[in-house]
Amino acid sequence: MRQIQPADLFDPEDIARIRQPLPQACTLPPTAYRDPLVWAAEVETLFRRDWLCVARVEQLANVGDYVCADLPDQPIVVSRSSSGLHASSRICLHRAMPIADGAGNASRFVCPYHNWTYELDGRLRSAPMMEGVQDFDPGSCRLPTLALEVWQGFVFVNRDTQAAALAPQLEGLEGFIENYQFDQLVIVETVEFDSPWNWKILVENFMEAYHHIGTHRHTFEPVYPARQSRVPDNGGAPWLFLHMPGQHREDSGLPLFPALNESQQRDLIACCVYPTLLFGATATTAVWYQLEPTAHDRMRLRIHLLARPELAAHLSNEERAAFADGVRAIHTEDIAANLGPWRGLQAGLTTQGRLSSFEKGIWQLNQLWADRLGLG
Length: 376
Hints:
Blueprint: H1 12-19, H2 31-34, H3 36-47, E1 52-56, E2 65-71, E3 74-81, E4 84-89, E5 103-105, E6 109-110, E7 117-118, E8 124-126, E9 147-151, E10 154-158, H4 171-177, E11 186-195, H5 199-206, E12 239-244, E13 268-273, E14 277-281, E15 286-295, E16 298-307, H6 309-312, H7 317-344, H8 360-373
Antiparallel strand pairs: 1-10, 2-3, 2-5, 3-4, 6-7, 7-8, 9-10, 11-16, 12-13, 13-14, 14-15, 15-16
């Protein structure tokens, strides 16, 4: 029996409308969001082959530090040993029990089921009561590893250990963000949200300012008008940049990022490293949206507030709570802009919509998505 290919899941005319130049282009068809078979194709063609952000390097500053993450269909652990950073499956080689959870510091990982013990780099250290098992050598066993790369302080992994290096693919984005010095920022607060919708809806919403006129009409629109937003060409590279010029210099009372030019001191920016790294910044603070898609209709979302270490070190608990409240307030507005379209995409009469010229970021996302799935 012939295996179902991504192209089998779509009407060729729908794909042709995606592939049109922006002035003629349409959104993805509803089936791209709501069909579990499309999700299965995404897991195979995107999430098993692309670079996915799973941590910040400051979370792994000391030997023994580890952070667990859930890639689509693969739980992993990223850890620092005396020889550097490592990314491995966190599923025991014996009976498939997870060997770690959450984040912390450890000298080794011990499976809670049968006490099989692993070094921080994934090598099997010991396996109790395995005497007499033929041709079993703990020293030759190791948890499956992933490729790992650090860029701008973000830790990326890739299940394709032969994948092309990430940093050269992001050179075009570097020039837009270098003054923000993201590699020097640290996490100061994290909030988590239940997100029962398709992952692409949130990514699309993050990368356009057109919705400021509706969703954020009382918050972002007066300060960062949608009509002034711009998205540069990315040449098909796996990144997007959204520039939202501000009406005035930020006056929050916080110190500005020191390397920003005068214009950047007024701006809001949003960035995507495809498929799921989303981050943005004002002149004083930044955010990292950590997405962990788990199915076609749900994902885990953690929003991390980032700041310079000298600011983070002096924030009181009350100030941290105030930052978290601000993040919640903006994302609460965006929840409606995610949940509403998700419900609408279930309707039988819903079809592809036309893109605005202010949705160039969505058009770029759609091209990357169609490229990965081999469509059109």
